[in-house]
Amino acid sequence: MDADELTQSVWDISKDEFPDGSPLGEQAKFLLHYAILAPSSHNSQPWRFAVRDEAIEISYDETRWLEVADQDKRELFISIGCALENLCIAAEHFNIGYEITYRADEDDDLVSTVTLERDSEPSSNRPPELFDELTERYTSHQLFEDQALPREARERFRRVIETDDVTLYLIDDPEQKRSIGELQADADEAQMADPAYRKELGYWVGTGALGSSWLMARIGQAVVSHFDLGDREGRKNSKLIERAPVIALLATHADTPTARVKTGQVFERLALLASAEDIAVHPMSQVLERPETRTELAARTGTGEEIPQHLFRLGHVEEERTHTPRWPLEAVSSTEQ
């Protein structure tokens, strides 16, 4: 897909334009404007949507799979789960019911089917304020302030996922954070030492998908692709982890594609709730991209038989919220009615 198609305009959605009274297929297309605002690894946006009457099929686009960094497609399925969650939240806001059929464990690119139902009362544990955060949520890469997360916010995080098959670990012990920071540095150094990893990362930097201008994206691509910056990145990212008030980890008993999709749904719900609480969020994926550090992370965080799926920082920071660009909806969707 041509990087020139990337745009910031997709973030400007007016809920007043919802086609109330139109067929469900038309309403489904409107809901997808919110789905494409979901976060994804490297902002790769690996989703495709097909509207078929009252059903929305969500598939993955293998051309946007990070084959080196994400060899088992863990991050791809988590990214799809984030988009699925946005879709569900938008549907509930407009009083559209839905039924999710998970298909990710089957041997094709179809991840899930969402069948819409008219005039259905929401029956989930999603707080209504999450809808307004769909266009406000952002990812922070800054050093967080030395300010503890309120107990009330932590309790809300736990309540909002209590019916899911995903466990949330909130880690604030300084020694444990230091240990995770060491793992982060090890993972950064190992990843950046791999020329194939640097080439892949450089490609995504170069597309401008991470929000840089065309010139800065091209310069960044050249630097990342040709220089091993692992030591520098390791020091920077380990500091980000050690100084964060809370490190959050999502883990599951199963390590299947469906478990990863559900992890993405939970993460996006937490990220939107954090946005409503004015708490910044920053995923840290490198530790989970290497089997040896992923296994060690489980040992250091005490997840037992549960398998780490997603690691991210939570904290406070004073900064302007900025959004990364998205491909327009017509580039990632189709309609068959």
From TrEMBL:
Coiled coil: none annotated. Gene3D superfamilies: NADH Oxidase (3.40.109.10), putative nitroreductase (tm1586), domain 2 (3.40.109.30). It comes from the Archaea. Transmembrane segments: none annotated. This is Acg family FMN-binding oxidoreductase. It comes from Haloplanus litoreus. The lineage of its organism: Archaea, Methanobacteriati, Methanobacteriota, Stenosarchaea group, Halobacteria.
